[in-house]
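Box 3.1. Reading complex inputs
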Amino acid sequence: MSMILGVPVTVLSGQLMLGVINGAFYALLSLGLAVIFGLLKIINFAHGAMYMLGAMCTVLMFDAFGVNYWVALFVAPLVVGCFGILLEYFLLRRIAGQDHIYSLLLTFGVALVLQGVLTNIYGVSGLRYTMPDIFKGGMNLGFMFLPYYRAWVIVVALLVCFGTWFMIEKTRLGSYLRAGTEDSQLMQGFGINVPLLISLTYGFGVMLAAFAGALAAPIYSVSPVMGSNILIVVFAVVVIGGMGSIAGAVITGLLMGVVEGLTKVIYPEGSAAVIFLVMVIVLLIRPSGLFGKEA
Amino acid sequence: MTMMKKLLTSAVASAMLVGGAQAEISGNTVKIGYLADMSGTYRDLAGPNGQTALEMAIADFGGKVNDAKIEVVSADDRNSPDSASSTARRWVENENVDLIAGLVASSVTIAVSNILEENDKLGIVSGSAASSITNEHCTPNHIHYVYDTYPLANGTASAVVKEGGKSWFILTADYAFGHALEGDVTRVVEENGGKVMQTVRHPFPTSDFSSFILQAQSSGADVVALANAGADTTNAITTAGEFGLTQSGQTLAALLLFLTDVHALGPQSAQGIQLTTGWYWDMNDETRAWSDRFMEKTGVRPTMVHAGIYSSTIQYLNAVKATGSDDAQTVRKQMMDTPINDMFAKNGVIREDGRMVHDMYLAQVKTPEESESEWDLYEIVRTIPGDEAYRPLSESKCKLVTQK
């Protein structure tokens, strides 16, 4: 059997595949963060909590009303997105235009409150969610067993990422968004409701996080603390990609998934730290990130 | 001469004071501090429901001991030895706390037991796993009550090897508890003629185990053992199910699994897994009766930690009552002299190293067909007698044993 770095090629290919799948989650989450920061200049530390709410919402809707997975995949992001809009309207708007640190602290506080309240109600052991029957089982690729669900995650996550990039960079609505946040007075002069646009953008970023949460519900243990672990990683991804760069967030998300996956085989103990190591190196060489515009 | 007289008088006076203190309950109050993880990873297996168990014990005892009142204070240790130490220090030095109960994360327990030793107060450890707590870290001021990593390895690992699982892949949480468990398991596997082929240490905590499960699959080992706890274990088990680990002929062994974890997983994902436990709610009429009362108050079935907190509190209060004292050494000696016979343990004995030795149980998670209700999760496969389960005193490194 041929080997690379002391690891059989077949094992390595399997790990690369898994890396892409995890990367797809990172991409979805960092995309939302990048949209919110890129357009609104809000450092959204509640992003992990919104991911958690998406997953919790999927499970709770099933338990309470028997809402199935497909419906939840649309409804959970909508519900959490609406919550995001309320959050923007009642809290974030008050600190618009202030230093970034205010949005960071405010959203961090919101995340802690959400996590604390839900922990008191549901505990931390995790809620049970059964995978839809259609996804049970998997296929043997020769080098690994690929569960159907993981294959579905890659496809749908990439589609959503591409769709979001296309909407913001290539459509008229996207150009309003970008212009509205660049020069809101001018846009308001054109008769465009900029505050509404901002609320909707924040809501949309939150929806992306909640969507990732709903996608994660069948494969990860769903609990109020699930968002706090992933948040820091996703922030690192956004920093590496270049704060605010939409394409950068997606590509870096996938890349970091792969880097982390390979580390798990070669030096498992370092897999939690490798992304931060990459971040340090990238920041030393390119302070604005891989895809960020030079300041 | 007057100087000498003064010294003598004060020496006699303080001797009388000390002597007096041993025979009575200080401040006519027995004060118990409950220190545990109330909000983090170990919340569900100990946490606020552990405090409920403690309060149930006090209420069942009658709320008073020899006319002295019983007070409870509690705090969240946040799984941080620093935070727990400052609370423990405040309690024993300024607030006259006599007993610290709960004690979940092993790092917290080791830090707190040092403070207890400095101040000669008592601690009863119900949640921690590390067997070092009554080995190299033993003190004359704490008792380890419910279980530790030694029987976890002895129970599950030896059972699995004897059933033919000869080659092992161990997936270990990369911190003290995981390392201790990995070491204990390796010893038991090798002693029983098995072989550990590969160990992989994963960062704590990890949310995605797919990569590690894939490595376990390609290792070709008969047994994939999880030397981790809490969310790490449940995540790993879920992923193993998703990737068809057991369907491809490998056995999954979870070395530390609590009832709350199995409940979160459900019998569909957890069926067939073998585990070692110190107690199970559905063992007999006595355990069921107590668990029903517990469930009425909390809405959930108790873990072995909850039951252990109840039992140890009753034992403690009995010892205070019998000796009429809340002095740590007097009470500890009385507890050591009294075998434990209650709904938690039969003929349990507290050894000089502070280890409470009692029977442990090898359990298997029921299939969805076998499980008749939400909490009907375990089949008790075998009783592991206490002497067989725990580290024998002859192997102890505890100073209380070696310096005798």
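In summary: The longest strand of chain A covers residues 138-140.
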